[in-house]
From TrEMBL:
<feature type="binding site">
    <location>
        <position position="662"/>
    </location>
    <ligand>
        <name>Zn(2+)</name>
    </ligand>
</feature>
<keyword id="KW-0820">tRNA-binding</keyword>
<dbReference type="InterPro" id="IPR009000">
    <property type="entry name" value="Transl_B-barrel_sf"/>
</dbReference>
<keyword id="KW-0175">Coiled coil</keyword>
<dbReference type="InterPro" id="IPR018164">
    <property type="entry name" value="Ala-tRNA-synth_IIc_N"/>
</dbReference>
<dbReference type="GO" id="GO:0002161">
    <property type="term" value="F:aminoacyl-tRNA deacylase activity"/>
</dbReference>
<comment type="function">
    <text>Catalyzes the attachment of alanine to tRNA(Ala) in a two-step reaction: alanine is first activated by ATP to form Ala-AMP and then transferred to the acceptor end of tRNA(Ala). Also edits incorrectly charged tRNA(Ala) via its editing domain.</text>
</comment>
<comment type="similarity">
    <text>Belongs to the class-II aminoacyl-tRNA synthetase family. Alax-L subfamily.</text>
</comment>
<dbReference type="GO" id="GO:0004813">
    <property type="term" value="F:alanine-tRNA ligase activity"/>
</dbReference>
<keyword id="KW-0030">Aminoacyl-tRNA synthetase</keyword>
<keyword id="KW-0436">Ligase</keyword>
<dbReference type="InterPro" id="IPR002318">
    <property type="entry name" value="Ala-tRNA-lgiase_IIc"/>
</dbReference>
<keyword id="KW-0547">Nucleotide-binding</keyword>
<comment type="subunit">
    <text>Monomer.</text>
</comment>
<keyword id="KW-0809">Transit peptide</keyword>
<dbReference type="GO" id="GO:0000049">
    <property type="term" value="F:tRNA binding"/>
</dbReference>
<dbReference type="GO" id="GO:0005829">
    <property type="term" value="C:cytosol"/>
</dbReference>
Length: 983
């Protein structure tokens, strides 16, 4: 591969293929003011840490040598002229050049991790270091000495500042270089200076440096590389000391700032002045472990964690006033401007801010949906839903009407997809799903907005009716409800209100906004990193990885390397103890990839401390620290001692049931893609011994014929008796071959590929059958929605399928015996019975209605007349009358008493229940008394509530013994209110 194709390798998310070590090496450098576009050839040595130091010596020898450096190796083609000369400042070029720079200095180029992190402490990927967290903690072995990435990140804690400042974004790319116990401050600072001043050619006189106030070493190194002391600012712990939490790895950091206005001089310089400076590169020197008492202990393995904001550097190099006007975002803004029929350049500040919001948020939502996040009301789904709704309401404020179908999000998303395919080609493959999801979400929210418009009309009418001489005002709380619940822009609320002569209490609105902002900033804003000091963690971390032989064998002779009881390490455990066992090798599959852990037995020879054999029943197996298997079970016999040699045996029957369901899951995904379309993607799965569960992205319930076709396909593939093929491949080759990967799942450079030839090919570490015929049969037992745009299928296969069918057959036989019909006659017989039951219910209801009216006619003469008026009141206890009959009785009595009249009835329809009804004639309602409000208050006396229309309302309660007093209170209130109204 030619050096110039390195960028293309990264763009395709493929590891860089390296030439032979004998190829010539070249380094990009600047000499005598002229940029020589020569590159260090990416030899295999850059991935071999054993050669790293020698290689670096060679690099610096070449760099500092006065000898001429060859412009081009004989076997290499030069870069395209436009790329080399005219495109060095583009976002794609900056990314590529950063990665090439550090690759040439021994760093492993890795693809961006998903925005959905494999980390319970954070909701979304918020930093470039997140995928290396376990390495920094020492919980996972380092596979390379140093790495470099262009990491996609999402942060929403400052979402209200997006578009208002020059640098705040929700979605951004963080370029980073990382060292895991390899190089430290000197190399990190030297390379950062070389990168910025030589590779990116930033004027050194415009660069300022901040260091931690006690970090004289970093300040000295910066000065040595050429930064004047007056441009090295020492700041306190709040600004320049990085901590991950109360405890854990930490250390001083150093930042590089670009000065947009050097003419302002050196006096009273404030690096926090956004109008003059932008911080674009942060170097964290992770050198301490912070203990619970606050003391700092030097780390044995010192690390480097850096982050360079791609959009920020693009802003500097492209000489634009803010991040949004770079080529990374501006094309989206241009598209939004076109849809709105406006010009960004000629727009006022408010309009520009709204266009920036649209540009930023659209990048965020496209990437989030691509990484499998579906809009919902919880968790990550809530984040993407809020961003989508913010785009929609902002777009409407700009005047974007949408296409012929009324949508505009898909058109904006197309622009984002066109921009991002250079760094994330997987987004392009998800195009149809992304556009469909955005279309559905926009449709839902537009309906919500329309409801908000109706609510605004009601609120404005109320404000006008309730106002006195002062100008009517809409409360800030109501305006915030419109904004937060219905997505109604407050600017639009103010505009509509002003048209009707109503002001808006913006002070109260701002107060509500600030409350929400504080709640938002309090959640998921930092990476929680803890070194962990418990004895159990120390044991697990000090144990070598478990050798898994469970693909080849269900039995193994192993040695007990560790033992935990109630989470604490012990040397031995006795009968009855709940234990966690660490073995040097195991046949037990540990829960992962949706498949549950194996069950089985561990048993062994007589130990010195016990009489009889050791026997432990294993009920679960989990993984810790990546490759440590933890076998959880109960000691049934004997005493288990650390160091004992034991036999480990997997339950063969349960393993087979898991294998069957896992392979059936692969077939199910293939069938769904065949029947519903290739855009259907997995959203989660669970493989157990008795069933499988498969979650997938789809916008509607499946029809019966679709479910039948899915079952038919799967059972056909089972009947084809196809041998499965399992291979170990590089991740690049596996994806190139078409293997499906699960969103959010982490994969190494080498992956296991499970293929049912002609049907399915997936990256999977689970256990599977050898031949599809082992599955025997497949049946879907349920299909339902579990979230917006996410469906779930539960199914059974293999032995569980036989058990399911047998059980259903038994139920059918019993039903046939009870109904005294044949199986094929059951449906008709049940339909007949249902019709007969319906008729019987109607007859019963009619009989109860007659009884209610008869009973009501017996109490009509108990009505009370108020004074000399014609108003009649009847409040009565109707004993055990049911709610429907009570309503009929009230309506009958109201007709009998004639207008004006008020009827309140109560009853005990069942044990622990109270039923109430209020029926008011038009004359009573015209006096300002509403049945719904009245009966609701009375129901509270019986431990309940209710309401309804002004003329007729029902309620209920849970304290029957209070009904008499409640009815007495109802009569007293009616007499008092109506007497006052007629007096």
């Amino acid at each position: 591969m030619e050096p110039w194709s390195v960028a293309n390798s990264f763009q395709a998310r493929k590891p860089i293929l390296l030439p032979a070590p004998s190829a010539p090496r070249f380094i990009k450098r600047k000499t005598a003011g002229y940029r020589f576009h020569t590159f260090l050839h990416l030899d295999a040595w850059i991935h071999d840490s054993s050669n790293l130091k020698e290689s670096r010596k060679e690099i610096f020898a070449i760099k500092n040598s006065t000898a001429s450096v060859p412009l081009e190796p004989l076997n290499r083609k030069p870069p395209p002229q436009d790329e080399a000369e005219n495109d060095l400042a583009s976002g794609d070029a900056i990314r590529r050049r950063f990665l090439e720079f550090y690759a040439a200095r021994g760093h492993k180029v890795l693809p961006s991790a998903s925005l959905v992190p494999d980390d319970p402490t954070v909701l979304l990927t918020i930093a470039g270091m997140l995928q290396f967290k376990s390495i920094f903690l020492g919980k996972a072995p380092r596979k390379f000495a140093c790495a470099t990435t262009a990491q996609r990140c999402i942060r929403t804690n400052d979402v209200e500042n997006v578009g208002k400042t020059a640098r705040h974004q929700t979605f951004f790319e963080m370029l980073g270089n990382f060292s895991f116990g390899d190089y430290f401050k000197k190399e990190a600072i030297t390379w950062a200076w070389e990168l910025t001043t030589i590779e990116f050619n930033l004027p050194p006189e415009r660069l300022w440096i901040s260091v931690f106030e006690d970090d004289d070493e970093a300040a000295s190194i910066w000065h040595e590389v050429g930064v004047p002391l007056e441009r090295i600012k020492k700041l306190g712990e709040e600004d320049n000391f990085w901590t991950s939490g109360i405890t854990g790895p930490c250390g001083p950091c150093s930042e590089i700032y670009y000065d947009f206005h050097p003419e302002r001089g050196y006096a009273n310089v404030d690096l926090g002045d956004d109008s003059r400076f932008i911080e674009f590169y942060n170097l964290v020197f992770m050198q301490y472990n912070k203990l619970e008492d606050g003391s700092l202990v030097p780390l044995q393995m010192k690390n480097i964690d850096t982050g360079m904001g791609l959009e920020r550097l693009a802003r500097i190099l492209q000489k634009v006033p803010n991040n949004y006007e770079t080529d990374l975002i501006y094309p989206i803004i241009e598209k939004a401007s076109k849809l709105a029929g406006i010009s960004y350049a000629k727009s006022d500040d408010r309009t520009k801010t709204n266009l920036k919001i649209v540009g930023d948020h659209m990048r965020a939502v496209v990437y989030l949906i691509s990484d499998g996040v579906i809009p919902s009301n919880i968790g990550r789904g809530y984040v993407v839903r809020r961003l989508i709704r913010r785009v929609i309401r902002t777009g409407r404020l700009l005047g974007i009407k949408g296409n012929a179908e009324g949508y505009f999000l898909p058109e904006l998303a197309e622009e984002v997809i066109n921009l991002c395919t250079q760094i994330e080609p997987d987004v392009k493959t998800q195009r149809a799903r992304i556009l469909e999801e955005l279309k559905r979400e926009e449709y839902r929210f537009v309906q919500t907005l329309e409801r908000g418009e109706k609510l605004l009309d009601q609120l404005l009418t109320q404000a006008l009716q309730s106002s006195s001489d002062a100008k009517p005002c809409l409360s800030g709380k109501d305006a915030f409800i419109l904004y937060d619940t219905y997505g109604f822009p407050v600017e639009l609320t103010k505009e509509v209100a002003e048209e009707q002569g109503v002001s808006v209490d913006m002070i109260e609105f701002d107060h509500e906004m600030e409350n929400q902002r504080r709640q938002s900033q309090a959640a998921h804003n930092v990476v929680k990193l803890s070194a962990g000091s418990s004895r159990s963690e120390e044991l697990i971390h000090s144990t070598s990885k478990t050798e898994f032989i469970g693909y080849e064998s269900l039995f193994a002779r192993a040695v007990v390397r560790g033992l935990l009881v109630e989470g604490d390490p012990v040397e031995q455990a006795t009968k009855g103890s709940n234990v966690e066992i660490l073995l040097n090798r195991t046949p037990f599959y540990a829960e992962s990839g949706g498949q549950v852990g194996d069950h089985g037995l561990i048993f062994g020879p007589v130990s010195e401390e016990s009489e009889g054999n050791v026997k432990i029943e294993i009920k679960d197996v989990q993984k810790s620290n990546g490759d440590i298997f933890i076998h959880k079970g109960v000691i049934e016999e004997g005493t288990l001692v650390v160091g004992t040699e034991v036999d480990a045996a997997v339950d063969v029957n349960l393993r087979q049931r898991a294998k069957v369901h896992h392979t059936a899951t692969h077939l199910l995904q293939a069938a769904l893609r065949s029947v519903l379309g290739p855009e259907t993607s997995q959203a989660g799965s669970l493989v157990t011994f008795d069933r499988l569960r498969f979650d997938f992205n789809y916008h509607r319930p499946l029809m019966e014929e679709e479910l039948c076709e899915i079952e038919r396909l799967i059972n056909k593939w089972i009947g084809d008796s196809t041998d499965l093929q399992t291979k170990l491949m590089s991740l690049v080759d596996a994806k190139r071959a078409g293997a499906l990967a699960m969103f959010g799942e982490k994969y190494g450079e080498e992956v296991r590929v499970v293929e049912v030839p002609g049907v399915s090919m997936e990256l999977c570490g689970g256990t599977h059958v050898n031949n599809t015929s082992e599955i025997r049969g497949f049946r879907i037992i349920s299909e339902q929605g579990i979230a917006s745009g996410v469906r779930r299928i539960e199914a059974v296969a293999g032995e569980a399928f036989i058990e399911y069918v047998s059980a259903r057959d038994s139920y059918m036989k019993h039903l046939c015996s009870t109904l005294k019909v044949k199986a094929e006659e059951v449906t008709a017989r049940v339909e007949t019975l249902l019709e007969e039951l319906k008729v019987a219910k109607n007859e019963l209801s009619a009989a109860r209605a007659k009884a209610a009216i008869y009973k009501a006619s017996a109490v009509v003469n108990k009505a009370v007349t108020i004074g000399s008026s014609e108003i009649k009141i009847l409040v009565e206890n109707m004993d055990d009358m049911d709610a429907d009959s009570l309503k009929r009785a009230a309506e009958y009595l109201l007709d009998s008493l004639q207008d004006p009249a008020a009827v309140v009835l109560g009853s005990y329809p069942g044990e622990g229940k109270v039923s109430l009804v209020a029926a008011f004639s038009p004359g009573i309602v015209d006096m300002g008394i509403q049945a719904g409000k009245f009966i609701g208050n009375i129901a509270r006396l019986c431990g309940g509530g209710g309401g309804g229309r002004p003329n007729l309302a029902q309620a209920g309660g849970r304290i029957p013994e209070n009904l008499p007093s409640a009815l007495k209170e109802a009569q007293a209130q009616l007499l008092a209110i109506l007497t006052e109204r007629v007096s």
